[in-house]
Structure formats: C-alpha cells, structure tokens
Amino acid sequence: MTGELETLEDLSKHYQESVPSDLREANSFDWYLQELNDDPRIARNAHQRVADMFDHYGTEYDEEAGVVEYRMASEDPLHDGENVFYGREVHESIHEFVNKVKSGARGLGPEKRIKLLLGPVGSGKSHFDWMVRRYYEDYTMRDEGRMYTFRWVNLGDVIRDQDPADDTVTSPMNQDPIVLLPQEQRDRVIERLNEEFDAPYTIRNEQSLDPASEFYMDRLLAEYDDDLQAVLENHVEIVRLVASENKRQCVETFEPKDKKNQDETELTGDVNYSKLAVYGESDPRAFDYSGAFCNANRGLFSGEELLKLQREFLYDFLHASQEQTIKPKNNPRMDIDQVIVGRTNMPEYMDKKGDEKMEAFNDRTKRIDFPYVLEYDHEADIYRKMLRNADVPNMHVEPHAMEMAGLFGVLTRIEEPDGERVTLVQKAKAYNGEIDDSDDVDVKKLREEGEAKAGIAEGMTGVSARFIGDEIAEAIMDSTHRGRSYLSPLTLFNHFEENLENHGSIPEENLERYHRYLELVREEYKERAIEDVRHALAYDLDEIQRQGEKYMDHVMAYIDDATVEDELTGREQEPDEKFLRSVEEKLNIPSDRKDDFRQEVSNWVSRRAREGQAFDPQDNDRLRRALERKLWEDKKHNINFSALVSANELDDDERNAWVNALEEQGYSAEGAREVLEFAGAEVAKAELEE
C-alpha cells in the first residue's frame, strides 16, 4: 500500500496474518498424538530444531572454500539484509557452529557440550548469537518450526489444597507433551514415529516431568486409579509454544548482575516465597522456575562473557551440558533440553585454559573460533553495510575509501610473512583473491604459516571493525561540519592516525607497528590514485586497441618463429622484442617468465577466436593493465603534473574534462579535484626525483 495511509484495520489484518493460526488454541492430547503421527518434527529436541532452522532459511555451498553459507547469515532475509555477515573466516566459523549443532542433533556428543564462541572484541560473535536467537523465534512461529507444550487445568477439582490461583498451570519448563507419557508407552510412540520419519536424525526423549508436573501427575493418577487417559483428557490441554526472548520463553540470555557475588539460583531457579505459606517449603509447587536454564528449555541458552564468571559458578554448567540436568537448591533435579552457547574474548579464554582446576569445564566445551575478517574487500562490505543502515544520504564515499580502511584493518590482523618473498601487503592481497596466474604465491601455505605463527588462529588480534567504523563515523561528521559532502581515503587516514592512541583496546606496544601499517596503506592508495588519474588523463580506447593488436601480432610471430609486417614500410621483420618487453615490464614480468606470459595471452586469444569472439584487450585484465600503463608512460611527459596541484595554472576546460573523466570512475566532483591534486603532486615529485 505504498503512498497510502495505513489504517488500523490494515495493520490489524497484517498482524493476524503474521501469527500462527493455532497460537490461541487449546487441544487435547489425542489431537497432539495425531499431529505427531502426521509430522514427527514437532517432537524434535532443541539441537534438532536449531539444526533444521539453519537449513530452512536456505544454504549455498562455496565449493572453492569448502564451506556452506547459510542465507540467514549471508543474506539476512528477515531483516532485508541489515545484518549480513561478510568474510570467508566468519562463514567458516558459522559453518563449524552449525556442524556442531547438527552433530548434536544426531546424538554424536556435541549435544552435551557448550558451544563456545571465541574471538576478539568486535569480531561479530555476539551479533551472530543475537541473529540465531532472532531466527529461532521466527522459525518457531512458522509451521516448519512449530512446537507444543501443555498446561494443567481444573486442578482444584481434584487436588484439595491447590491454590485457586493455580487452577491452571502451564508446564513450568515448557516441556514437550510427549513427556506426559510414561517412558515405556512413550518409547512405543517414538519407535513408530522413527519408522516413518525421513530425517538425518531420530526422535528421542527420555526426559522426566519437571517436579511440579510430576507432582500433579502423581496426585491425579491416584485420584483416577491410574487411568492415564482420564487424567490427560480431563486435566491437560496442548498449546502452541513460540520462542520469545522478551518473554523469557525458550530463549534466554544470561549475564549475572554481580560477577563478584554470583548465585546459582540465577541459573537454576529458587523458592517461590509467595507460595511457601500456601504449600510449604518442600512442596515442588512452591518453586519458582525462573532460572536462566529453566527459561531456555526447548531452545537456546546464551551466556554473555561466559568465562568472566567465577570458577565455582561455572560448575553449574557441567551437569547442564554433560548430563543435561540441573539441580536447584531445595528441589529435585530437572532435565533440560537446550543448545548452550557461550561467548568469550581471548584474555578470559587464555586465563581459564591455563587453569588446571578448569579442566572438567574445558573438556565440556566445543571451541569455535570467531576471528576478524581477513579479506579487505569483505571488510569494506562491513563498512558499506554500516553506512547503508545509517542516515548519510548527502555524503559521497570516494573510490578506495572503504577498501583502504579495510586493508588497514586486515594488516593489523594477519601475521607478518617470513622472508622477503611476499610482503605484508602482498599477503593481504593474496588473501583478498588478487593473485595473477604467474604470481609465485601459495595462498594455502601462507594461511598455514599464519595459523602456526598466530598460535590459536590468524585474525584473533588486531584492530576491530568497530574501531574503524567509529572513525568512519567521526570522519563523516567532521566532513559535514566542514561543509564537505565527500569522504575520501585521505580524510580517513588522518582520523586513523590521530585516534589510534586514544582507543582503549589497542595495546601501546602495537601503536608503532600500526602507524607503520598505515603508511603502507597510504602507499597503496597513492598507487591506486595515480592509476585512476592516469586513466582519466591518458586513457584512449582506440590507442589501447591498436597497441593491443600490435602486441598480439608480435607475440604470435614470436611463438611461431615467424616474421611480422612493419606498419610503416610493409617489409617483413623480426618480432620487436623491445616493444614486447615495454608492455610486459608494466606488469613486472621478468625476462625469464616472458615466454609463459606470451603463451598465456596467445592461448586466450586462440580460445576466443574458436568461440567466434573478436580480440579486445579490455576483456583480459592483465593485458589491459599493461597496455594502459604503457600508454601512460608514453603520454605522461606531455602532462604538466605540477599544474594539477594549482587550479591557477590549468585551463578550466582541461581540468573539467579530467574531473568528468574521474566522475565516470565513481568520484564526486570535489573528490575528483582532491585526487587530481594529490596524484599530481606525487607524480610531479617522482618526476623530479627521476
């Protein structure tokens, strides 16, 4: 209804359509058994339901990386892409997390472990955890993710000392209705379900009723002479269960209020003092099932900064994970069914890892490394996402700004390569996928060396995307105050340099190294800026085509040991080796590798010819770059670079033509003038040095 005012009737109808049709219904246990027979998935345990949730929203297999990308993380369909995750390393971590959940769904062991997300600050582990909880809530609203629980009704008709306020009691632990069946009868139902169930896991449930429900069941069975059917028909209703963190229902985030004075009742629940006078201290009805483990039952438990908790407090996690039970004070043990996720940063992990008294806890965790992004193009995507989600409509982000910000972040995260074969920037480019076929760079080996040198994993230290995002925000506001409507890499570099010392998460011993990395990024940007200006000042498609055809004529003659016709005299001559090398040297191809390159472009041309495609150097990235750089070398001596720095020394029409050419490359008019002056000054300085 774009452009029209939404009425209350419209909004109400939209809301009604968004909630499950049976959300308010109460059904019989017989109805539940029939539903279970039609769709055994409704009796899945938490690991099985969470595993299916990831697949439900869609998957895509990245064959090159060998990683499954889950659409809820790679596209975020629920929030229109607002929370997309970028970077190979992050998707590898998510893939590992889901694999552990799926292993737990099959009963292979991880269902009895804490999934511990380990990473530096700002690596996205908390946001991923948040995303999982939001999608779980949505999934349980859908038919594919539906689950049910039960409530006791008409209790006062039979149990004489029942508080009238408790005549109807919902299952305190939101248990699956199937636990109302004694184990022997339950197994018969489950065995039949699994015979017809087509899934990579089997339905299992050996839980006992929670103490309050067990109390009601015992009293009611005694009243009805062990007639289970009468009890379930007269005193049980089946209701839809939907996860909601706000309601503390099947999703719980736990962080104790006082880390120095922790109480296990925050996890396991406590006595309900308002009911003590009614039921007495030892009565299970006088228990308050408000502990975090109780609230998370049938879903997700999320422990914030888990390893900052006291050692003794963490012991409660041992039974919760391994035995899948909790033992509150003054109450019998209770079975739980939930995916327990914890998050922690590196210092806390290293401290607990070295603590011998934490051996049992450490043995019950499955560590999932959640490093920073190590591909600077993907890192740049993080900042673009930040800007997309913000209100910055009047700020033009200049070319290379986000990439250079990403490159700086990545340089602080990757390990310095050994030897002189590959520089740090070259390593970052290799991780980014910028490797020519002729480059002697083994990315897999670089990653292995980096992992070995890093200790735990590469990308677990360095500058966070949060720091860089904050500086981008500051640079935008500073530009706005100065009346500038563009954000350039040069502005960002200044903010990085000024504020590195002021960021509390950057150790002082790293500052000198980070400033050095910033200079490397400046140098990389200088080359890119000059390349852009070179393209604007000297670009000539016709000349590049002509030079490309000439190059290929001479290459073919060289390979075939033949002659080529001279353009001016028409006489046959040997291939012009000087001309060939003048092109190849622009790609830093050494003389001992020239034959490989020439054969490579020759094969490319032959392949295109067989496909009926004409020769066009624009379609071969390496050849195009070489020809562009040669054209620049041929023309640059006729350009007054010092004039680019001063508007007074340049004809307005000529400058405007260059500005227009840069605008076609994505620059704003103001940004184009800045990069013209910057690149002009750098080239003029280089010309003087030559």
Describe the structure.
This protein is an alpha/beta fold and 690 residues long. Helix content is 50%, strand content 9%. A five-stranded parallel β-sheet has the order 8-11-14-4-15. Strands 1-7-5-6 form a four-stranded antiparallel β-sheet. β2 and β3 form a beta hairpin. The chain is elongated. GO terms for molecular function: kinase activity. It comes from Halobium palmae.
Which tags fit this structure?
4-stranded antiparallel beta sheet, 690 residues, 5-stranded parallel beta sheet, alpha/beta, 19 strands, 50% helix, 30 helices, single chain, elongated
- How is the biggest beta sheet arranged? 5 strands, parallel
Structure class: alpha/beta
Task: Report the average pLDDT across residues.
Answer: 89
End-to-end separation in angstroms reads 66 Å
Strand percent estimate: 5-15%
Radius of gyration: 33 Å
- Alpha plus pi helix count: 30
Shape: elongated
Strand order of the largest sheet: 8-11-14-4-15
Give the fraction of residues assigned to helices: 40-55%
Low-confidence stretches: none
Secondary structure tally: strands: 19
